[in-house]
């Protein structure tokens, strides 16, 4: 999945596949995680948030099934 680099102290890049509603987050710590069933409006809000990390923690982290891929 292609990811877009973001300016964040915690998140390095963010990718999204609208067909499968899969959100992919790469952290500066090196981990890459996929979150499943994430609606496109949540991805859009994440990408436009003033704090990507803050939005992720409040709206994604504990709200969707996930798996670590790296």
TrEMBL record:
The keyword Ligase applies. Its EC number is 6.1.1.6. It comes from the Archaea. It is an enzyme of class 6 (ligase). InterPro entries: KTSC_dom. Residues 7-64 form the KTSC domain. GO terms for molecular function: lysine-tRNA ligase activity. It holds the Pfam family KTSC. Keywords: Ligase. This is Lysine--tRNA ligase protein. It comes from Marine Group I thaumarchaeote SCGC AAA799-E16.
